[in-house]
């Protein structure tokens, strides 16, 4: 494996070989959660150039201090690979295995084409209009099916694994070029897998802006926490509004809503997380998670149909016992609502994305698509400006990374 000091290598440089298969460097995707280097590579066999894969590469340590971090990171990556053996589902991104190398180790993962909901949210804001309810129902039902598979996995003895994703957010749900919806990255999932790495820290795992209240408070979480996170994701994708970013409330009003008991809970959670690597907006997210009410959900869901608002209300209950009991129940409700709409397929979802890209047109110049996304383009038509197969081109960087402090509101007319 190429050493970190050799980065970035030239495109086409062989990172490592496994048998008669070579993995050639294509693009550096940055640093992962545990400090690993994430790379996009192309597979080459004696038959020629094959598909792309994502590599999580962890170089072996040079110092004693690095050795301790290496062992922790290695344990997490190994657990991710072992857990992936139980997650063989068409709506979940696959991990192909772990490769031991002289200079480190690499996790080989499936590279998915398509665009994440995070990117599509930026496209919607650029064009000044969000996606249809049918699109939202399609994505939500498919994501719920993926979560149901994960939540109900058992080990070889039939013992429930208790898998909780813990990082469901718009960046983890991707629409592929054929309309397929995939849930990605179980890298910080909670499970009862034998030999798992303990991660019971007094903090939310994953993106705190999409964490369930019980997760933010450092309490025990189960599958219903993932459903809350999916609810926040669908609400933002449908309206651009977020419960943890209540623009209609002042800081004083947030404090006034907290009971004495709730204030003590927030204080205890804040103290417990001191010294941890939390983002600066984590405490604000915690306060919002504690104070939001049913009327805030109703205000955030304004403009949506009554049945869809009812679904979001049930997903976004502070008390887990009041949410949908399982992802299967959520999927059934979403599919029932789908059945009340005109027929809508994965191909229809892709067409809707293509239309959104065409309508946004040059406004997408200011939207940065991550390096591992692409593959959905606007059909070539004389009356519609076309986009390249990948939204990245020579016109400049497209920017989707929204600052956490930025208020996300429903877009007005594009200017």
Automatic annotation (TrEMBL):
Source organism superkingdom: Bacteria
GO MF annotation terms: ATP binding; protein serine/threonine kinase activity
Protein kinase domain residues: 23-344
Basic and acidic residues bias locations: 392-406
Acidic residues: compositionally biased ranges: 370-384
Disordered: annotated segments: 370-415
UniProt keywords, alphabetically: ATP-binding, Kinase, Nucleotide-binding, Serine/threonine-protein kinase, Transferase
Pfam family name, one: Pkinase
SUPFAM superfamilies, per database record: Protein kinase-like (PK-like) (SSF56112)
UniProt-listed Enzyme Commission number(s): 2.7.11.1
Protein name as it appears in the record: non-specific serine/threonine protein kinase
Annotated organism of origin: Corallococcus coralloides
The organism's taxonomic lineage, starting at the top: Bacteria, Pseudomonadati, Myxococcota, Myxococcia, Myxococcales
């Amino acid at each position: 494996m190429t050493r970190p000091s050799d980065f970035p290598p030239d495109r086409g440089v062989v990172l490592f070989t496994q048998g008669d298969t070579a993995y050639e460097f294509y693009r550096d995707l940055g640093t992962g959660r545990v400090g690993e280097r994430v790379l996009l590579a192309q597979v080459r066999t004696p038959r020629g150039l094959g598909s792309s894969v994502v590599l999580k590469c962890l170089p072996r340590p040079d110092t004693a201090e690095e050795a301790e971090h290496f062992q922790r990171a290695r344990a997490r990556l190994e657990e991710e690979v072992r857990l992936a053996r139980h997650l063989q589902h068409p709506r979940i991104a696959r991990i192909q295995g772990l490769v031991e190398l002289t200079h480190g180790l690499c996790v080989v993962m499936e590279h998915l084409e398509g665009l994440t909901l995070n990117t599509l949210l930026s496209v919607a804001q650029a064009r000044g209009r969000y996606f249809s309810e049918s699109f939202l129902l399609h994505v939500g039902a498919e994501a719920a099916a993926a979560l149901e598979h994960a939540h109900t996995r058992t080990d070889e003895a039939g013992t429930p694994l208790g898998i909780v994703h813990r990082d469901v957010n718009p960046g983890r749900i991707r629409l592929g070029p054929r309309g397929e919806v995939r849930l990605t990255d179980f890298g910080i999932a909670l499970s009862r897998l034998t030999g798992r790495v303990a991660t019971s820290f007094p903090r939310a795992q994953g993106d705190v802006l999409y964490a369930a209240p019980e997760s933010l408070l450092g309490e025990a979480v189960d599958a219903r926490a993932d459903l809350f996170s999916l609810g926040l994701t669908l609400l933002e994708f449908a309206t651009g509004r977020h419960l943890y970013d209540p623009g209609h409330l002042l800081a004083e009003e947030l404090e006034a809503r907290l009971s004495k008991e709730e204030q003590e809970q927030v204080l205890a959670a804040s103290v417990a997380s001191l010294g941890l690597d939390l983002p600066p907006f984590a405490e604000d997210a915690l306060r919002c998670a504690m104070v939001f009410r049913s009327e805030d959900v109703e205000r955030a869901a304004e403009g949506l149909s009554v049945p869809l608002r009812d679904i979001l209300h049930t997903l976004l209950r502070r008390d887990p016992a009041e949410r949908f009991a399982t992802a299967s129940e959520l999927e059934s409700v979403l599919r029932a609502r789908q059945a009340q709409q005109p027929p809508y397929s994965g191909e229809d979802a892709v067409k809707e994305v293509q239309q959104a890209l065409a309508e946004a047109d040059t406004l997408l110049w200011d939207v940065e698509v991550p390096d591992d996304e692409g593959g959905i383009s606007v059909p070539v038509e004389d009356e519609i400006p076309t986009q390249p197969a990948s939204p990245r081109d020579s016109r400049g960087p497209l920017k989707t990374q929204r600052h956490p402090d930025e208020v996300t509101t429903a877009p007005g007319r594009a200017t």
